[in-house]
Amino acid sequence: MERYICIHGHFYQPPRENPWLEAVEIQDSAHPYHDWNERVTAECYAPNSAARIVDGDGRMLNIVSIYARISFNFGPTLLSWMETFAPEVYRSILLADRQSIEWRSGHGNAIAQVYNHMIMPLASERDKRSQVIWGIRDFESRFGRFPEGMWLAETAVDLETLEVLAEEGIIFTILAPHQADKVRKLGGTKWRSVRDGNIDPSMAYRCKLPSGRVINLFFYDGTISQAVAFENLLNRGEDFAHRLLSGFSEFRQWPQLFHIATDGETYGHHHKYGDMALAYALNYLEENGLARITNYGEYLEKHPPVQEVRILENTSWSCSHGIERWRSDCGCNSGGNQGWNQAWRAPLRAALDELRDRLAAGYALKAGEFLRDPWFARDDYISVMLDRSAENIAGFFQRHALRELAREVWPEVLALLEIQRQAMLMFTSCGWFFDELSGLETTQILKYAGRAMQLAEQLLPGNYEQPFLEMLSAARSNLPEHETGRRIYELFVNPSMIDLVRVGAHYAVSSVFEDYIDETEIYSYRIGREEYQQLRSGQSVVAVGKVNIRSTITLESGDVSFCVVYFGNHAVYGGVRSFLGKQEYEAMKDETLKVFADGDFAEIVRLMDRHFGMHNYSVRDLFRDEQRKILGLITDKTLADFDQQYLKLYENSRSLMGILRDTGTPVQGRFITTANIALNLELQGSFALDRVDLDAVGRILAEMRDWNVSLDSVDLEFLIRRKIERMMEVFRENPENIDPLEELRRLLQFVAEIPVELNYWKAQNIWFEMAKTEYPRYFADLHAGEENGVRWVAEFGKLGELLGFATRTVIPGL
Q1: Listed residue (326, 149, 143) closest to 220, CA to CA
Q2: What is the C-alpha to C-alpha distance for residues 276 and 281, in angstroms, rounded to an integer?
Q3: Which of 425, 473, 664, 723 sits between 20 and 30 A of 635, alpha carbons compared?
Q4: pLDDT band at residue 813 under the 50/70/90 scheme
């Protein structure tokens, strides 16, 4: 009897973009990475694109794509981030799906996901439809095909959701075993209860819907899925493979499908090297002919359902109480916080539901003045979200406008549609999943609500924020200092709000430190410099200007004037406001520049107060990433001075320290501290050079051992890794030049003796790629007796060994 195995990975991160900037700002909790998307990509998404299969000695035998071998879905908002910030990984995911189509009878491994991970049974019917349509359209734009399946957030399901999936052409979805109610043979009359997870997961099931439509359902194996996620099943690939095989039964008389579903982050992020365990297990199963690796689409085509199923509505995979985790204090939480409760979930849900309905009513009324069908237009707004070019926006309005709309009207209509986008983002499931109302995920959905209300109060009649905050006051934080949801909104959402003047303030302050061109982009805003003048006097700088600022999202635009004075270090004082007219601007500019030229800095501040009133800004008002960058520039000089002092102190003290040590006199701690800092600086400086002097590095390391000072391993690892990666890229671009290859080999031999755990992931990928593409040519030269071929093959093999490959297995004949 045929045996099939399918592993499904649900790869997802909650959207983390600042709703006003459309960008993920720096998140210190993800250090040393910029943000959690970047960190999880490094720990999981990238490794799964090039997973290592190793032998018993830990040497690499192969590098494979997990995505080409498992069923998977990626959250659309995550893929949107990845397309820009992790393009190589993004491309590898798309390529893996194309590869799987060839391997799996024309069925790709990728399936779609409801757009922003909304709990579908708690959504309005209108939002359900948009979530599905946006998920499908996003998938088509990336993978170039219609998705056969769709992942439901938290596998939360009801019949209305399944109706929408089926109506939009989705063939199947995946559920947890405890979400099944009854089964019977297709065409049969007697139902059998399978509650409490007793459904047989080894086949597909047909679900007949009230409308007469049907959808196919797969119920994953719950026991082993839980073991993968929460036990140590990924410690050893062969053990994992045998546990998967244990899901088959000799008593089943049909082609069995064994399948599990877990968060994709299990493989590498939650369980380090989980990607390697998965790669080994799949390879072990295939090489030994123990089961056929498949995906849901292929299995469904080969073995259509013979059983019918009824579901338990309002259930999910991660809440034993159904879907209460997203609307009540059901007891499900992250754990670890004794005495806390989640009673805040219900009033948060109520406040957002009420806001959604008020926004929907206002949108339908106002958008109806411009659009033939406001809700059909909202469904199609995904086409604009994916491509905000002027041509595409024009095409959108041609399809949906009641009449030809002047371009001056576009910003208002786009802002109305943005209200609806933010109103869906505010229901992202993560806002209710964790323990505390003031957590990052809940604060994030409140920011989406804040952005929706900000736009609504500009465009729609009535007050939105005040009633929302009153309802939010009923949600109480577990942290006394945060009081209620209203207080959390005031603390964390209000300061995040941005308008065109605030963007202008960022531009004005940063212009003292940045050399902006006439047209520049700052996050989701395009800045056109219409006038700019800067004067310097010693450390002090004054900048006066006028810019036009346009949102690339809503196309809202406006003119802003400013004056900024920099007094050195972090002292920046700026005035910014909407442009009031040429006469007033010229008067402000002339007065300010004259007073600055006279050196009367106190008078400049008084002038700015007079011209700009309370519209004053400083470094504190910069957006977080630029703030860090500018503060870094400000502190770099000071730190460079510190570094030079430490290097000079150590050079002047080295001889004395030696005498103290040689005579048995204790060397005081301040001497050792100076040596620690100075020697680490010298070491890092050596690896920052274009060509590393290994003899000099050896002397520094010996000196560090003499003084028993520790390596700054984090910074050193980064420098060495980047050096090796750049050298590998140079070698790949010109493989015929053997000198970089020999230099690489010497460097790797040397750094192997440094007590720092180096991440060779990218360098290994380049070597493996060249082993499959470049090596055969030089191997032929070797056998032809050409000297270059002989040297190249020998050096390339040594390099592979140093990078951790079992080279004679990877490239037979070496």
Answers
A1: 149
A2: 8
A3: 723
A4: low
Q: Tell me the β-bridge partners of 565.
A: 542, 573
- Provide the percentage of residues in the chain whose pLDDT is more than 90: 80
483-503 burial, b if ≥16 CB within 10 A, otherwise e?
A: bbbbbbbeebbeebebbbbbb
Q: How far apart are CA 355 and CA 467, in angstroms?
A: 9
Closest by Cα among 630, 10, 583 to 265 = 10
Average pLDDT, the chain: 94
DSSP string, 42-68: IIIIHHHHSEEEE-TTS-EEEEE-STT
**Residues 6+ away with beta carbon under 8 Å from 544:** 532, 533, 534, 562, 563, 564, 588, 589, 592, 593
Positive/negative CA dihedral, 198, 201, 206, 208: positive
CB 281 within 8 A of CB 258: no
Residue 493 DSSP class: I
Of residues 611 and 747, the one with the higher pLDDT is 747
Condensed to tens digits (0 to 9), the pLDDT of residues 699-742 reads 999 999 999 999 998 889 999 999 999 999 999 999 888 888 99
Q: What are phi and psi of 262, to 5 degrees?
A: -145, 170
CA–chain centroid gap for 577, Å, is 35
Nearest-angstrom CA–CA distance, 281 and 497: 49
Distance, in Å, from the CA atom of 552 to the CA atom of 392, rounded to the nearest integer, reads 13
pTM: 0.94
pLDDT of residue 621: 83
615-618 LR contacts (CB < 8 Å, sep 24+): 615/501, 615/505, 615/575, 615/576, 615/577, 616/573, 616/574, 616/575, 617/505, 617/508, 617/509, 617/574, 617/575, 617/576, 618/509, 618/572, 618/573, 618/574
- pLDDT (tens digit per residue) in 519-545: 999 999 999 999 999 998 888 889 999
- Kindly state the tokens that stand for 181: 């109610």
Is residue 382 within 8 A of residue 77, CB to CB? The reply is no
What pLDDT does residue 785 have? 67
Tens of pLDDT, residues 403-438: 999 999 999 999 999 999 999 999 999 999 999 999
With a cut of 80, say whether residue 758 has pLDDT above it. Answer: yes
What pLDDT, in 10s, does the model give residues 576-617? 999 989 999 998 888 888 888 888 777 888 888 888 876 678
- Structural Rg of the chain based on CA atoms: 31
DSSP state of 588: H
Query: What is the Cα–Cα distance from 760 to 104, expressed in whole angstroms?
Result: 32
What's the CA gap between 269 and 44, in Å, rounded?
5
Residue 778 — pLDDT band, cuts 50, 70, 90? confident
Q: Are 159 and 281 in contact (CB under 8 A)?
A: no
- Amino acid letter, 391: E
**644, two tokens:** 């030079």
- What tokens were used for 186? 């297709």
pLDDT tens-place string over residues 441-455: 999 999 999 999 999
Between 206 and 564, the more confident residue is: 206
Contact call for residues 469 and 463 (beta carbons, < 8 A): no
Separation in Å, CA 653 to CA 180, 640, 707:
76, 20, 13
801, 807 Cβ separation under 8 angstroms: yes
Cis peptide bond prior to 304, omega within 30° of 0: no
pLDDT at 238 over 80: yes
Query: What tokens were used for 505?
Result: 């303030």
Mean pLDDT calculated for residue range 92-107: 98
CA atoms within 13 A on the CB side of 278: 36
Spell out the SS3 assignment of 387-429: CCCHHHHHHHHHHHECCCCCCCCHHHHHHHHHHHHHHHHCCEC
